């Protein structure tokens, strides 16, 4: 098998309002439909934030459980629940997300300014998430918004050991106002600092989406795309379906001679629970 590219789709996020972005999938039906389209377009992992009946971000456990079940019934995608939630979510709710027993969870490796807000991830919370994910056999994706967070990841692994499955997978989240910029030289610096043997994807927020995608492909990385991270294809051209972003990523990966990885191969790479 030749080299392939793991594509993660992050279809919803917690930041955009449905009223502003009508194509955002916010109901379970919309999410499942999006997931099917994105799987057909080449995604292997889905990074999930859910909404309540008023389309506001929620970490309601029973909704999360229903979401995991529905995505597993309708797709072969690896289901990754966000433990980041919205910037206003309390730590206990974010930790409880793991009780929905997804295949994967996000685990951000430090606090970062997040536009006008602060995304809080203090060390004791990181440790709690890491230990709970080990206990429940959920594979974390370590989210890195800044170079200092790479150092925190090393410290976490040194002190508390490898995650469930024994493999370290990271996602560089670039271009957040307050985090590392979305450019090639920063991407290379972050990748060079990762733990040996780690695999990684990268995503660029907003207008850094394409530069980060091309930098990641040329540096041998994987890709994350989706309306959580960008809601336009180009200036003045709104995304009308997440699958458009996945199709574009799959085309770029194929052009780079590393076509999309199947979900089955991604399960083997990430060592998610069978
Ligand atoms: N919504 C952001 C505050 C994650 O999913 O783990 C955090 C976020 C990261 O989206
Ligand atoms: Zn997220």
UniProtKB/TrEMBL annotation:
<dbReference type="Pfam" id="PF05853">
    <property type="entry name" value="BKACE"/>
</dbReference>
<keyword id="KW-0808">Transferase</keyword>
<keyword id="KW-0479">Metal-binding</keyword>
<dbReference type="InterPro" id="IPR013785">
    <property type="entry name" value="Aldolase_TIM"/>
</dbReference>
<dbReference type="InterPro" id="IPR008567">
    <property type="entry name" value="BKACE"/>
</dbReference>
<keyword id="KW-0862">Zinc</keyword>
<protein>
    <submittedName>
        <fullName>3-keto-5-aminohexanoate cleavage protein</fullName>
    </submittedName>
</protein>
